[in-house]
Backbone:
């Protein structure tokens, strides 16, 4: 793997300070796995990016251009992470988006982070973060560049601590997601659920894949309000994203969970999409 | 005025794409007026920046260093705007703040934006934005780099429209602030108030100056919850920040307001601090 970086298709590792991505977090991003030159669930990443551009009224680069830049960054790479940022471009001192701004594309290739296989196999320990997610229905679901809540939440523990991921609640105490993952739960009454994200949270690409795959299989996962109490009494809990695949949760505070059939089936579906090592 | 830009004290107009300001909006900013080589209320700007660094656990550059860089950028300038960004620096692909990151300082000098004097004299028309402010008590009050809510709010109207500023409510409908200003109100019962900002909003430098000055004068302004109904029935309303000083509000939807004695006294106090042209 070679670390590399492009700005608007040109090898380059700087952006102008006037870029609205820096000035206001005025943009979006995607983090994608590159495996043997392929990008699993690429279409879903591009879908979310285009939804985001539409909702923020950012001029979206064409799917074809993004796809070809991403695939050529992935080409020949055994295993790497690609991070693509799309910002509204440069311009203006004030908040008002300039009418004619040209979108900035930043593409960065990182080494693959090797997580211990045990995290997929026997599961992880989850922390409940004290940093909460604020509600904003206009931004909910998007993977935008305003990520201070996640930065503060992730700063609550270090690598010496026993947790591998942190759970984030909203301001009302509802369970929403992990700092970098979505959460799926098999409740005590056997219902399978994941939090609905109409007021906050990031609608993950792996979440979408699992939701769709579970409908096809005739055992749908429902998007719903989820309380800490329901989570604590659950039968199975796992965290997922499009890089790690699925990490079962084996412990959350005093609560222990088994890694059940449902989680294993979901891991199988993630691997079918090319994601997850277990 | 000459437009100019420095990164960590060096004339330069780019930052690395790995800067966490771009990646996550992981930083803070201040916008300061430079007038005849001076920066009014400079100490208050530095106070807010240091509070912000403390709350985000960003290594704050020393006050002396920031002050000297700001004053040398102001030196010889008849009238300009300085924008100072402080980010957590470069490092890491994930949200977790690297333990040893070196803060990035970006300082930009812009031309002074000439607003029509009538906006200070006879007042402005205010729009009620449909974009709402989400609650996050850990970020409330800070001038951080996650500003998508303001960008979306400011995109709701253009320069062809009759409004000069937009009013932002929180998710519960409480009045919080303008897109780039704070709001002060003299209610129908003569109480003088400004919204409390414990759950969202930016605690402005001019707001602090006016709050302190009004206590000294024995006619304190109270920080409180403010409803649209109270605002609509108010006697006087004005918007303020440390660049424009004070803009009286003469119209909000169907409601018209007179520019009263209280607003004029506040404008006098702003001018005493060196801010506002009227």
Residues:
């Amino acid at each position: 793997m070679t670390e590399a970086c492009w700005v608007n298709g040109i090898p380059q590792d700087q952006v102008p300070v006037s870029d609205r991505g820096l000035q206001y977090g005025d943009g979006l991003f995607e983090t994608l796995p590159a495996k043997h030159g392929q990008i699993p669930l690429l279409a879903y990443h591009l879908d979310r990016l285009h939804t985001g551009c539409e909702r923020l009224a950012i001029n979206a680069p064409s799917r074809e251009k993004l796809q070809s830049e991403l695939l050529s960054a992935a080409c020949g790479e055994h295993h790497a992470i690609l991070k693509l940022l799309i910002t509204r471009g440069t311009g203006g001192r004030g908040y008002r988006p300039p009418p004619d701004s040209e979108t900035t594309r930043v593409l960065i290739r990182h080494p693959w982070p090797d997580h211990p296989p045990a995290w997929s196999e026997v599961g992880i320990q989850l922390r409940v973060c004290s940093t909460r997610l604020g509600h904003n229905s206009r931004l909910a679901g998007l993977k935008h560049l305003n990520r201070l809540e996640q930065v503060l939440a992730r700063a609550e523990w270090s690598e010496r601590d026993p947790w591998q991921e942190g759970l984030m609640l909203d301001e009302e105490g509802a369970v929403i997601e992990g700092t970098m993952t979505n959460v799926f739960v098999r409740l005590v009454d056997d219902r399978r659920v994941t939090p609905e994200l109409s007021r906050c949270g990031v609608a993950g690409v792996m979440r979408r894949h699992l939701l769709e795959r579970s409908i096809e299989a005739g055992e749908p996962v429902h998007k719903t309000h989820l309380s800490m109490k329901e989570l604590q009494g659950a039968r199975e809990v796992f965290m997922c994203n499009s890089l790690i695949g699925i990490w079962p949760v084996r412990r959350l505070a005093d609560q222990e969970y088994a890694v059940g059939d449902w989680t294993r089936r979901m891991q199988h579906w993630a691997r079918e999409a090319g994601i997850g090592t277990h």
About this structure: Chain A has two domains: 4-111, 118-272.
